[in-house]
Give the backbone structure.
Amino acid sequence: MARIWVLIILAVLMATATQTDARPRISPQEGPQWDFCSSKADIIIYGGQAGGGKSFATVLLGGRYYDHPKHRAIIFRRTHPEIVAGGGLWDTAGEIYPAMGGVGKNESKYVFPSGARVEFSHMQHENDRFRHQGAQYSFIGFDELPTFERSQFLYMISRLRPPPGFDRRCRMVATCNPDADSWVVEFIEWYIDEGGYPIPKHSGVIKFFTIEDNKVVWVDRKWRGPDGVKPFSFTFISASVDDNPALLARDPNYKRNLYAQDLVTRERLLKGNWRISYTGGMFDPSWFIKIQASQLPQGIKMCRYWDFAATEVRDNNDPDWTSGALLGTHAGNTYIMDIVRFRATPGETLKRVRAVAERDGRPVMVAWEEEKASAGKLNSHHMIGMLAGFTCKPDPVSGDKVERAKPLAAAAEFGRVYIVEGEWNKPFLAEAGSFPMKKRDQIDSVDGAHKMLTVLKRVWPEWSADYIREPGPRVDLTNRAVMFKNLHVGAVVCAPDGTAVYAAAAYDPIESYLCVYEAKRWPDINAVQIASYMTMRSALRVVHGTKLLGNEDMFGTPGQRGIAQLINNELGALQVPVRLSRAMKHDEPGAIAFMGQMFQDVHVDVLHGAAELGVAVAGWCYEEGGKRPERGCGYGEALCLIASELRQQIVVLRERKRADYAAARQPEKSAGGWMAS
């Protein structure tokens, strides 16, 4: 949730001139935020659209009685990381409380000179509420109330009571964004209309309730329970980003970013709609614009994404479908070009996937949803082998499928998604209209391809698995003379999951040409197997000066043996003069740039013996939203180790050439011949 920055404080650190009150005065903005801070209700929910300054107001109100020695306030987020995240509650408190003399302690509480305390805590698990049993708080705040359980909120009402010696008003507040599926709706029902939008004249009106048998019962103000117990006073105050001019001044694009969201998110965060939900209607079939195949633009970037079904068709069951969606992107638009779906056995499924890939052609990336744990990686390894020659990308997805479909829904609503007319249109549009309540295999495959094409950035976009080839005129692995003039580098990468990969390449410094001729993957790390394979399959015996590099995970800490030492022991037993060593000057960004230029200049060949490496690096991408390549692509890391070593060797060779050239320019000494003076 966006917060109102400290710039909105109307009077920061304005001390009065009187000796009786020298406190700094920090004031909320006029409008809903002022109404929230000045309300007389026992329990206040402040919510609605995004950007209304709700978190800032909660922190501000929590420190209102910082001058009272018995003030005990607590403010919750569901998890602790949400408290300390950039721009979260802790950062917000740091903009306010130090001006009041508050001192932060361990990212969990502020202590003021008077003895007042404001604590920041979490209730990640439902039973965490019992950690506050017997506590007495003069102020309780919930930031993002719908993320909490109803039982947690109701239980903490019982903790809202004045600590001994506290003689001011206790209150409980909460902030929220609209969520039609949340229990919070039962509290704010009277404050919204049938369409789900806030009723302006109801905002801030105080109502009264009591709790009977764990149910909220609305009562009259004069109602009294057993022993004369009074009801709780309650109000809901709605706010929008338009009530926060300071935020809009600081971030003019904030409102634009809200408009760019999918329909449901936009209705909730921009318009405060409490009725709209993701229980159907996330996609309107009319959003998809139909075109003919002949209308597809030139230069389109394509991906076929598979969402596999695990259940076979039986007598009366209705299992999911295996769905493969072919999408393309061009100039910011998305084109759904084809969807293939079927129900088949695993063996038949693999045959159809290969056949579809052959039909699509090698320029089309093939991606699929990778299941978690080792089974998913094993299946992906098998898929990559079956699709040798194609650019492949396993996608270890996470998170809710509805969340993953939001970018596609937003693009479709804004008229940026086109579908090529075909027989598959009708079942796809029917599924889109009922998503996510019914079958969703086609939507899953479509938004998977959409993610691959619009979100992920490939490390080497110029490289394609189509460049995997047979030995050609530029390399002759059987010619010892040619092999001796090349620089040979091998790399072994061991991953934390216990797998290992090996790659070997030869570099011709004269032609500036790299040939990756060997690649191997092991499902577990076995020093004997690795050493034996490298000795038999590479040029270790016939080429002097070969360099073998290992990643850091292969080398143990001082006093411990790493896998590299075990492999070196085996290489010694095999009488191989080369040993695995650390890449002391490894520079991954530099290596990526070096290989990127090589790929762009078409100075790299990957032979069929290293086809698995070629497929893997063709689909190697940067982390989503990050600046580092995805971890787990062992072949990509191995190629970077090789490239980093080559960069260093090339510098040495260039220096030698300069030295040779300088020596050739020196004049010969006279031997006393006829040229002597």
About this structure: The chain has 20 helices and 24 strands. Residues 1-22, 668-677 have pLDDT under 50 and may be disordered. The two ends are 90 Å apart (CA to CA). The CA atoms of residues 211 and 217 lie 6 Å apart.
